[in-house]
Amino acid sequence: MRDAISVSKSGHPAVLFVYNHFEKAARAQATALGVPELKIYVFPQYKPGNAYAPEEADKAVKAADEFPQMLLGN
User: Fold this and answer.
1) Mean of pLDDT over the chain
2) Largest CB tally within 10 Å, which of 5, 45, 62, 74?
3) Where are the alpha helices (H) located in the chain, listed in sequence order?
4) Cα-flanking dihedrals φ and ψ of residue 60, to 5°?
5) Is residue 51 very low, low, confident or very high in pLDDT (cuts 50, 70, 90)?
């Protein structure tokens, strides 16, 4: 979290990658630390005991496609 904020404050593009359970805390901390516009990619956390199921792999494939686009601002 703080690394993404430091990178963003230094003028470089940054995207924070967080599980959905931490989205609210991440947005609150970004705002509190002066970077409310920080790009945050919310990744749905895998279901316990199901980390290798095909639908979980699909989430990772989707994130791998969307994350660079978000970083570039597209």
Assistant:
1) 84
2) 5
3) 2-9, 23-32, 54-72
4) -65, -40
5) low
Tell me the C-alpha to C-alpha distance, in Å, between residue 50 and each of 11, 40, 47, 56: 39, 25, 5, 8
Segment 19-47 mean pLDDT: 90
Q: What is the phi/psi pair of residue 12, to 5°?
A: -105, 150
User: Residue 60: left if φ>0, alpha if ψ -120 to 50, beta else—which one?
Assistant: alpha
Instruction: Choose between 30 and 60: higher pLDDT.
Output: 30
Which tokens sit at 23? 């989205």
Cα–Cα distance, 35 to 54 (Å, whole number): 36
20-24 long-range contacts (CB < 8 A, ≥24 apart) are 20/44, 20/45, 21/45
Matching residue, tokens 């904020």: 5
Helix (H, G, I), strand (E, B) or coil at 16: strand
